Amino acid sequence: FSEDSKHLNKNCNTSPKSNVEVETFLPSPYHIALLKEAKNKYRSVRMRNFDINYIDIAGINDVLFKGNSSLVEADLQHSDLIAGVYEGGGKVWECTNDLLQYLESCYELSYFQGKSVLDLGCGCGLAGIYAAKCGAKVFFQDYNKDVINDITIINVLLNAPQKSASTFKFRSGSWDDAHSLFGDEKFDLILTAETIYSTRYYPSLIKIFKDTLRAHGTVLLAAKSYYFGVGGSLRAFEDNLDCNNIKYKSVWSTRHGLHGLEREILEIKNQY
Q1: pTM for the full predicted model
Q2: How far is CA 43 from CA 53, 65, 68, 148, 266, in A?
Q3: Terminal C-alpha separation, the chain
Q4: Which positions of the chain have pLDDT values less than 70?
Q5: Which residues form the signal peptide (predicted)?
Q6: CATH code 3.40.50.261 for 3-9+20-269
Q7: Backbone φ/ψ region at 77: left (φ over 0), alpha (ψ -120 to 50), beta
Q8: pLDDT tens sequence across 72-124
Q9: What residue segments make up the domains of the chain, in order of their start?
Q10: How many CB atoms lie within 10 A of CB 2?
Q11: Which residues in 83-186 belong to E strands, given as ranges?
């Protein structure tokens, strides 16, 4: 383990869309108007030291999504996945909550001070917001521009209006164009949840880990054991990690999920 392990509590053991859009944190009049509406509609995740407030596609569709938007299409189709258009970022998935609870239970708040964190496939951005509230600089990435613009940025503003703009970066686009997404960015911690549902993303996902994780950095990946209908699974992803000689271990799991479907968190380190 790296030196960062001293901050852990002792009781814890190919995409078809290639264009990359860059979002800035400075809130536009559009974001300010959305934020005003969101303040009456947000939900909260209660953590030990603070709450994380958020909006999602279910609660704000009538307010936020006027005109052409992939979020409107997804909501009208009652779909969590529209290939090449929408990848489910408008809702908070079960494994995101697992990841939040793991961070709170197993990482001291001091760990995040001064750290650079990537919330990969961020969706509503809750994991990254947790890290930011604990003192990290956070880079939010999602496949879908509308998710970043209409949900992630609003959630950051709901939780950290006093933070400097330099604390956050937002980008959308395909993982296949990773250099355009991240450039020379390096991260101490990569947080990602429910991102291994399709095996076609595995090579790009693993390349991002290799290219952007600092020496002694850590990836925490939360996922279900199997994704019915789309083919991804933890075991298949672990096979891909093995083929790339990447070290990992399971740090949390449950066999009491929906219909007995196991959920798990993998810890992937640059060096063991």
Answers
A1: 0.84
A2: 6, 18, 25, 18, 28
A3: 5
A4: 1-26, 58-90, 165, 255-260, 272
A5: none
A6: no
A7: alpha
A8: 555 555 445 445 544 455 678 899 999 999 999 999 999 999 999 999 999 99
A9: 3-9+20-269
A10: 15
A11: 116-120, 137-142, 168-172
